[in-house]
Amino acid sequence: MKFWDSFLTWLKIKKKEANILIVGLDNSGKSTVVQYFQSGGKRTEVTVPTIGFKVEKFQNAGLTLTAFDMSGQSKYRSLWERYYSDCHGVIFVIDSSDTMRMAVASNELLLMIQHPEMVKNRSTTTTGVPILILANKSDLQVAIPIGQIRAELGLDEINTHPIHLEASNALTGVGLHAGLEWLSDQIIKLNF
């Protein structure tokens, strides 16, 4: 069946589809990231915090992405793991100006990376699910420098997942396209 799916995709009869999770602490900018991609870069004035999760679709690099925008409030974070088994990639959004909760974001990232569903055999590789980390609000004067974020999240010690850290601003789109291109390439390389 895998051969047949690959053959149809190669003939462009079957479209490449992937599920991505968009996670991170509350108020990090997850919904704003989704709105940016879904609207084609048009700015939305009002962003309502996500309760539970929302599902949105958008296109990138020949992929149809189904994005599960998960709430980052502490009482909803346990829902994230219910979607790990079917995800092809993760966008982990952090608020790079929130110095007080960087340790909490680091802990949530570590819990996610260590979950068995995130490192299971994917296609023909044993690589874990690719993770794009968006250091959102990086344009603010109080934002933590990207090198310090890399160190605080311990990204250099993680070797079980392809990981990319990108400075971003979800309101203007800075860093979003480059990050999504990286994630799309990883998803295609590992799954199709």
Automatic annotation (TrEMBL):
Family label: Belongs to the small GTPase superfamily. Arf family.
Taxonomic placement: Eukaryota, Metazoa, Ecdysozoa, Arthropoda, Crustacea
Record has Nucleotide-binding as a keyword: yes
Residues holding Mg(2+): 31, 50
Keyword flag Metal-binding: yes
Swiss-Prot/TrEMBL GO biological process terms: cilium assembly; intracellular protein transport; protein localization to cilium; vesicle-mediated transport
Membrane-spanning parts: none
PANTHER family named in the record: ADP RIBOSYLATION FACTOR-RELATED
GO CC annotations on file: axoneme; cytoplasm
Keywords: GTP-binding, Magnesium, Metal-binding, Nucleotide-binding
Designated name of the protein: ADP-ribosylation factor-like protein 6
Superkingdom of this protein's organism: Eukaryota
Residues at which GTP binds: 24-31, 72, 136-139
GO MF entries: GTP binding; GTPase activity; metal ion binding
Xref: InterPro entries: P-loop_NTPase, Small_GTP-bd, Small_GTPase_ARF, Small_GTPase_ARF/SAR
